[in-house]
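Hi V.,

You were right to ask for the full record rather than a summary. Here it is.
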Amino acid sequence: MSHTFSARGSSFLLDGEPFQIRSGAIHYFRVHPADWAHSLHNLKALGFNAVETYVPWNLHEPHEGTFRFDGLCDVEAFLDAAAREGLYAIVRPSPFICAEWEWGGLPAWLMYGHGRPRSRDPRFLGAVAAYYDELIPRLAPHQLDRGGNVLMFQVENEYGSYAQDKGYLRTISTLMSERGLTMPFFTSDGPWEACLSAGSLIDDGVLATGNFGSRPEENFAALRRFQEGHGRTQPLMCMEFWDGWFSRWGEAPTRRDGGELADCVGRALEIGSVNLYMFHGGTNFGFMNGCSARKQHDLHQITSYDYGAPLDERGNPTGRYDALRAMMAERFPDVPLGTPAYKPTLAPCVLVRDGVAGLLASLDALSERRESLDTQPMELLGQNTGYVLYRTTLPAYADEVRLRVIDASDRVQVFCDGELAAVQYQEEIGDDIFVSPRPDGSTLDVLVENMGRVNYGPKLCAPSQSKGIRQGVMADLHFLQGWEEYPLPLDDISALEFSAEGPHLAAPAFHRFHLAVDEPADTFVDMAGWHKGCVFVNGFNVGRFWEKGPLTTLYVPGGLLRPGVNELVVFETDGPGAGELVLADGPVEIETGA
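Predicted structure:
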């Protein structure tokens, strides 16, 4: 059965009647599909009526012309799950999403030969059009006017914090409408004049919404003044009401007091419509965390996207959820509330390592070797995320040779004949490294990690977002040439051959553990005692760990486990690792220097 929804005048209208949107953000790609229903149920139980999600281009088209819409990428199944809970949906299929996500959702293959992202460059727009040819026909049947549950679509995301090209915005809008999207479009920006003027299409009648997390009276008033200044009256909506914040390595998490948050949300709902960002933050699985741009030292975000949201990383209600629910009961007594749901967690246990595989000895099992005269950046090797191992022969020019890695991102480890010579991060890359090669020459290996591309701000299109080694490695005053390159996205580690123990535990290595369970449930892998790397559960990369914190744990959804024996593999880049692996029943936070 089809319905109507519009954003004309001062109110949203659903089937001709005034309608307030009470929405919460749940990103389907940050939550295991087995848990979608759990999170959506808790959203409905809070008295909310809609769910909002971004659509990450880089997850759906990881390589140009290769599309994914299964598993974590099954946006249609997520919309269907929301509909079963009686929830409407707001979908944000803009090319750029920010979202503290790898390169803001832009696919890495755009880096070379596809023009300037988020611009009218025909090469970029051609790539967007090809992506929309696949995506939009999957979204269109879920629109409210076709019997689905989608109310609105986003044209672009916080474009007013990046540029002001109305022609580009109109082209994206046209690409969406030409492919069958008929429900109202909107833009979302900071609620002040400069951002709204640059990033909205209000003069075209497109709904302009604001993003903020406090002072709702002041921010809604600014949004209203902007509308009136353009001779428009539109519904007031905060498209991102920030109820928490994301975390970066080495920084303490930010969490709001539940009572203060509930009061602020309640005041906002008394004025307009609200989308809580986030309602359930979830997890940056794999290597998909983003990065905050800074003038000198960029700050990479952690695997957990808990966000201090009403639901914790596993999807269970927190004290902030309880405070919001009490507020809804008090201020909006006519809104029906449900009973929240909670998921169990496995009992804590300790696993013993039963196999190891050294990285340098496993390159042929993990990668297809490339050869080039000069080092090639990650994207020109056909790779998006993960690591690249660069190898060459270093002649014995002297008893001690000075090396420099020139223009690389984000972290390098240099090995001479398998022995670690240096570890360098952004501010150190390019500094001198001294090694002593054998008289007949030595094998030089440089392992480079992409720690996450910038997802917001002026560095978004900078050359620094290309990863790997962009220039080369110098010995004395000349560039070394004649390289073997091993792309290591680590998206398939099934070919690894493990031994009971190995002689190369001090080098980067994979450590295998096994876990037997009767009934799968959530768990947390506690990486205390480990240094840096990532963890695989039955072949699935659950994300990065780093001893800097603020968390030592990685969340493992129960949906990744199976009854019987499960395989856990730790890729440790910085040391021998631990002989044991601890599974905890909740997140473990450590004190940081922040």
